[in-house]
Amino acid sequence: MANNVKQIWAAGKAVVNGWLAIPSGFSAEVMAQCGFDSVTVDLQHGVQDYHSMVACFQAMQPHPVTPMVRVPWNEPGIIGKVLDAGAYGVICPMVNTRDQAEAFVAACKYPPAGTRSNGPIRMVAYGVPSSYQQTANEETLCIPMIETREAVANLDAILDVPGIAGVYIGPSDLGFSHGLVPRLDRDEPEMLAIYDRVIAACKARGLYAGIHTGTPSYAVRAIEMGFRLVTVANDSGLMAMAARNAVSHIRHDSRIA
What is the model's pTM? Predict the structure, then answer.
């Protein structure tokens, strides 16, 4: 069980991550063929549920993308289930303290590093020991989200938790918690200063900072800032952007449309 995201990071490159809000294996299959390094199923704010997530994993499996999941919350039951189903990385929202980060890592890792229950039903034949259990703790990525004032204040303590691979900034909630309009691609000096702090703190520890962006141009900017995992919108957002551009182009260039 080799995690391609880890290999990309080790090579000094940035991971380009897709995001699935649509509960469809077909949508996942299309996205998996578009050149992303990893594709994340969103169980928090997407229209996905556990069964649609499994269908997305099955559709992505023939393609060279690393399957990841954003779980709805820092809750051991769902964290264990998404890992058993085949997630190689877990992005967890609203991790604000060291205690919460430690609980998150414990839910992701088998003993003695954590408390995850054995039963990786899609990764091996159920209940049969295999190399998966031997390598899962090392290969599974634990990525807490930094998206509140409290999380920023506790950033160093969160990053110092053993087992954390990096952090993922949620710009909308992070801005919202600072009294700003919730949106993805931010230019406010106070937000950019936080980004710089997160990137520097991760780099100092050999960890990796990720961020959700709304446009390809901001994703490029984020990589240039130092982020090493960037997501561009999601499948429904990309579809809407392409559709709007197509309609706008037709109406602009046609004399009668």
Answer: 0.96
pLDDT value for 1: 59
Q: Are 21 and 45 in contact (CB under 8 A)?
A: yes
What Rg do the C-alpha atoms of the chain give, in angstroms?
A: 18
Domains defined along the chain, listed by start: 4-253 (3.20.20.60)
Per-residue pLDDT tens digits for 59-114: 999 999 999 999 999 999 999 999 999 999 999 999 999 999 999 999 999 999 99
Query: Is 10 buried (19+), middle (13-18) or exposed (0-12) by CB count in 10 A?
Result: exposed
Helix, strand, coil shares, percent, the chain, to 5: 45, 15, 40
Integer Cα distance of 1 and 186 in angstroms: 36
Look up residue 106 and give its amino acid: A
Q: Give the residue numbers marked as catalytic.
A: 45
Bridge pairing between strands 89-92 and 141-146: parallel
Exposed / middle / buried, residue 58 (Cβ in 10 Å: 0-12, 13-18, 19+): middle
Reference 86, options 117, 60, 48; nearest CA is 60
Chain segment 187-211, per-residue pLDDT in tens: 999 999 999 999 999 999 999 999 9
